[in-house]
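I am writing to request your help with a piece of structural work I have in hand. I am sending you one protein, given as its amino acid sequence and as whole-number tokens for its backbone shapes. Kindly check, if you would, that the fold set down in the tokens agrees with what the sequence suggests. You will find the record immediately after this paragraph:
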Amino acid sequence: MSITTTIAYVLAGALAAAIIAIGLRFLVAPRVAAAGYGVSPDVADESVRAYLSVKGVRDIATGLFVAILLVNGATHLAGWIMLAAIVIPIADAVIVLRSGGAKAIAYGVHVGTAAVMLVTAALLLLA
């Protein structure tokens, strides 16, 4: 395995683990997770908590998809999936900004994540 592939796998694995952890946080500590996302919804409202739970489960599944591809050595497919998934943090940034959320989180967390994902996808596709 080349150094580029190793770096790509480490970055992709870290991203997969991070999104799984974020998903778990939405299930276990929705108030903290929502604040970290950049919005502060009323988590006492059951319908709001339901949506946060949906986000948590989908984040976990997304991380597992990437992990499964990496474990099976599907480097290029993982790169394409990672490239397609960049839509998620970009949309998250737009959602945070449109909701009056923290600009620092929108740009620093969500756009920053999209940038790391872009680099990771490129490395996986070049591997």
Q: What stands out?
A: The radius of gyration is 15 Å. Residues 3-126 form one domain. Helices lie at 3-28, 30-37, 46-71, 75-85, 87-98, 103-126. The chain is about 85% helix and 0% strand.
